[in-house]
Structure formats: structure tokens, C-alpha cells
Amino acid sequence: MTQLHLYGHPDSGHACKVALALSLAGLDHGVTFVDIHAPPETRPTDFLDASPFAEVPLLLIDGTPVFQSGAILLEIAQRFGVLGGESPEGLRLGREILMWEANRIGMCLPQLKAARLDGGEGLPADVICWLRVRLETDCANFARLLGEGPFLHGAAPGIGDCAVWGYAQWLDEAGVTPTAPLERWIDAMRGLDGMKTPAAFFPA
Ligand SMILES: N[C@@H](CCC(=O)N[C@@H](CS)C(=O)NCC(=O)O)C(=O)O
């Protein structure tokens, strides 16, 4: 059986994307909590040896490190034939949503969330304004992608849903009011059997 081990932190939406995918796919795996708020050099040595940027998420697959959340999600879908990886069409849709997420909604939301953190340095008002304008477009495009489906992948969630979930789970924290389609999708995501809180995905 393939050995899987995930390194992550509950404050990392990128790590949550992968933890959710493993959970939804029912893939057994070990987890190591990596303190991303501590200086990189204090992180576990095995993690530093395997993670080129000392960033989470990192997934070891039979000891082989895979980094970058999108690449990890694609690896999971393809290798195990899950979450869209069951068909060429599902995989293509997953790739499309992953590229869109990384460039658009997954760029805006983490910045808006970070800007509101207690003790954070915030962002200049015109940058916040720019992110909010971009996010309006992202929310409209999210609605197009979702269509009538409960999930972005249709009747069942796929890697694209996991990717968007990473930071869409924290709309309140980002100071964003969900549009109706986002709210409907968030409710469907929260109702999934494999859904967990970030702290449950990565216990300290
Ligand atoms: N593009 C990367 C982003 C990874 C990333 O930014 N990880 C952050 C947490 S969300 C991290 O590990 N930060 C710790 C550091 O930079 O020292 C991905 O998709 O995996």
C-alpha cells in the first residue's frame, strides 16, 4: 500500500486543500504539524530536507516529496483515480479549476485574510480595493463554474472543489460576504463526510 505523509499547519489554506482531498478520497496518511509562524530553520529536519522552500503543504508519497498544493492535488487525483481523476474529463476540469484558483480567487482571499489579522501589518487601502475588485470578478466566474451543480465538479466534489475550499473556508476572516452561489457551495462542502476543521486536519 502507498505510504502517504502530509506536512501542514491549520492556518495554511494551501495545506487544508490537500488534507481535504486525502480525507474525501479516504486515503490513509500520517500528518506532521509544521509551525509556519516559527523561523524556517526551526522546522523539522526531515521536512527541511524534502521541502525546497520550507513551505507547507508537502506530501511524501512512498518517501518521494511532492510540493505545491495544485501539483499535489493533481498527483492524488491521477495516481489514485479519485476526485475527478476517474476520467479524462474530470481530470481536465480539475486542471482548469486549479489554474483558475491559483491565479484568481486563491490569490485574492489569502491576501484579504492576512490583511485583517490581529497584529498584521495590513495592506495599503488601494491594494485592498484592487483585491476586492478582482474578487468581484472571481465570484461571478465562480458562479459560472458552479452552474447548477452542488459542487464545481458536478454531483460529487473533486480536486477543484478542494483547491477553492482552501481559502473560501475563511470568507468571514477575509471580510468577504459570500454571494448566493458561494454560500450554497460552502454549505454543501461543510456537509461532506470527510470535511474537518483546519485544527482537526493538523492537530498541534
Ligand atoms: N504555492 C504554494 C504556496 C505554499 C505556501 O505559501 N505555504 C505557506 C503557508 S500557506 C508556508 O508554508 N509559509 C511558511 C513560510 O513561507 O515560511 C502552494 O500552493 O502550495
From TrEMBL:
Alphabetized Gene3D superfamilies for the sequence: 1.20.1050.10, Glutaredoxin
InterPro entries in the record: Glutathione-S-Trfase_C_sf, Glutathione_S-Trfase_N, Thioredoxin-like_sf
PROSITE patterns in the cross-refs: GST_NTER (PS50404)
Keywords, sorted A to Z: Transferase
Name of the molecule in the record: Putative glutathione S-transferase family protein
Statement: the UniProt record of this protein carries the keyword Transferase: yes
Molecular functions (GO terms): transferase activity
Domain of life: Bacteria
Location of the GST N-terminal domain: 2-84
Phylogenetic classification of the source organism: Bacteria, Pseudomonadati, Pseudomonadota, Alphaproteobacteria, Rhodobacterales
